Amino acid sequence: MLNITTKEVQIDEELKTRIEFICDFCNIKPTIINGSIRKIEKTNINYIEPNKIIIKNTTFLAFNYGKDIFIENLQKHIKISEFQEYIKSL
Q1: Which of 1, 9, 59, 89 pairs with 39 at a CA distance of 20 to 30 A?
Q2: Which residues have CB under 8 Å from 8's CB, separation 6+?
Q3: Could you give the CA distance from residue 27 to residue 65 in angstroms, rounded to a whole number?
């Protein structure tokens, strides 16, 4: 039987501050959900679930210490510096 352990990972304070600053500038209140690490015991398999930022029913994904924000899934991404313009276009 597979045992999966999940450990919550707090969003990096610098990333959280940047996101909140950008959203304040756009007059939007984000919902931030911490990511997690899921590990299958007795194996070397780990899954890192990214932090989720929900704005206007759109989910953005961000990894701690990353420079990109992913839109809805891990295929489409933008730089954090372009995040403000993207939010304004929603």
Answers
A1: 59
A2: 34, 35, 36
A3: 25
Structural domains counted in the chain: 1
Q: Retrieve residue 15's tokens.
A: 């990333």
Buried b (16+ CB within 10 A) or exposed e, 43-71: eeeeeebbbbbebeeeebbbbbeeeebbb
Encode pLDDT of 31-77 as tens digits.
Answer: 999 999 999 999 999 999 999 999 999 999 999 999 999 999 999 99
- Domain range for 82 is 4-89
Using CA atoms, how far apart are residues 77 and 2, in angstroms rounded to an integer? Answer: 33
Q: Comparing C-alpha atoms, which of 2, 76, 9 is closest to residue 49?
A: 9
Intra-chain end-to-end CA distance of the chain, in Å: 45
> Residue 32, Cβ neighbours under 10 Å: how many?
17
